[in-house]
Amino acid sequence: QVQLVESGGGLVQAGGSLTLSCTASGSIFNINTMGWYRQTPGKQRELVAGITSGGSTSYADSVNGRFTISRDNAKNTVLLQMNSLKPEDTAVYYCYADIRTWTSTLTYTKYWGQGTQVTVSS
After folding, report:
1. On the CB side of 77, how many CA atoms lie within 13 Å of its CA?
2. 3-state SS class at 89
3. Under a CB-based contact definition with an 8 Å cutoff, are residues 107 and 98 in contact?
C-alpha cells in the first residue's frame, strides 16, 4: 500500500505565500514524477507543476514565475512554494506521484493525496 500525505494549505491574503508539502510512504520501489494538481468546483483538475526524479520541472503558465516545485528523493517528499498568491489560485491542491511498488516493479501507477484547501483572499 502507498499513501501520500499533504500539509500546508490554508488561508492567505493576496500577495502572500504558502508552502505545500507531500510525503509518500509505503511499499515504494521507485518514484518517477511527483507534482501537484488543483481543482475548483465545476472545473477540471489542472496540472500546476511537476518534477521528475532527476529534477526536471514543468509549470502551468498561470503559475510560472510565482510557484517553485522541489523534491527530496531520500524522503519521498515534494514541496510547492507558492509566492505572490492571487485569488484565482484558490483551489483544492492535490499531490500526485507516479510510483512503482515492490509488488508491481514494472508498472508505474499514479497515486493521489487527499487534497488540501488553499484560499487566497483579495
Report:
1. 9
2. helix
3. no
Q: Residue 73: what are its φ and ψ, rounded to 5°? A: -65, -35
Alpha carbon distances (Å) from 40 to 6, 70, 87, 101, 102: 18, 24, 12, 31, 34
Residues 35 and 57: their CA atoms lie apart, in Å, by 9
Element (H, E) at 37: strand 28-39
**How many contiguous H segments (helices) and E segments (strands) does the chain have?**
0, 11
Collapsing DSSP states into helix, strand and coil, what is residue 87?
helix
| Residue 112, CB-side half-sphere exposure with 13 Å CA sphere | 10
111 near 99, Cβ under 8 Å?
yes
Q: Which three cell numbers stand for residue 44?
A: 477540471
CA neighbor of 37 nearest in space, from 99, 111, 85, 96: 96
Could you report the per-residue pLDDT of 80-100, keeping only the tens digit for each? 999 999 999 999 999 999 999
For 50-62, the pLDDT digits (tens) are: 999 999 999 999 9
